[in-house]
Amino acid sequence: MNVFAVLAAFVVCWLTLAWLLRRGGRLPMDHPNARSLHATPTPRVGGLGIMAGVGVASLLGSDGTLLPIGLGAFALAAVSLLDDLRGLSVRVRFLMHFLAATGCLLALGLTGWALLAGTLATVWMTNLYNFMDGSDGLAGGMAAIGFGALALAAWMGDAHGLAVFCAAIAAAALAFLRFNFPPARVFMGDAGSIPLGFMAATFGILGAQQNVWPWLFPLLVFSPFIVDASVTLAWRGLRGEKIWQAHRSHYYQRVVLLGASHRQLALAAYALMLAVAALAFVLLILPLSTVWVLILSATTYLLILRAIDWRWHRSRNEL
User: Fold this and answer.
1) What angle do CA 150, 155, 156 make, to 5 degrees?
2) pLDDT of 184 over the 60 cut
3) Residue 223: which of 305, 301, 303 has the closest Cα?
4) Is the per-residue pLDDT at 70 higher than 70?
5) 268: which residues sit within 8 A by CB, 6+ positions away?
6) CA angle in degrees (0–180, nearest 5) for 46-274-282
7) Would you say the pTM of this structure is higher than 0.70?
């Protein structure tokens, strides 16, 4: 693995964010509102540092097979930065997400039903990562642990270019966490969360396509975000709510609203992320254990979600 490229991602992200934060009030700010969990205006430029680090690393250690993913991610980062600065309509954002996903997967060789399913999955992952970026340290931790797991699996599967790119993303996310771990000095913003979700999906598809891992592996690695966002949005849709509007009904948001600190939530989430990543490697190393791994992970999520639901409804009834 090109260690220099990975270290460069870490250093460039760190230095970029340190420089940006010295600009003070001239940065785009995330102001608190009824749907947010933070109490003070906070710069939302963390994604610029992450993508700067990943960009430098891709120049130093990537190979041509990953070019479609890199181009799609940086195109979405540019569009999302414009959204952070000026604001774009939901239709424009979704159009760009679909175009990036379709173009990338076509370049990777997907066609027909595989292309359709892959595009829908990529667009969903792109947006759910953004939905889950709402608490200090949460999205950065998922990036560090999730892409770190992909990097290790790719290295074990002799996919060295893929391993370097994923490790660089994880390294940049670790540098971002220096500024985002509670109490956060900077937020990721759409320019970080959107391309990270896009890369989580497309790297997962590419690794499965190249037989680096089974398709369940990346789903399990990123399942802490996938489960929370999917279950929450499904319930909102069943209640007739507008699922694209900002809200505070994700399970991780409820944990904070029930009294947990951002730090406590982040540490608990990291423990869950590491646990399901370990289960994903059991799945990778012992394919015959697939059924038991899925039963254990599903049971774990069911117990966690039910516990939060019970505490939430009990707290509402006590008001």
Assistant:
1) 100
2) yes
3) 301
4) yes
5) 255, 260
6) 135
7) yes
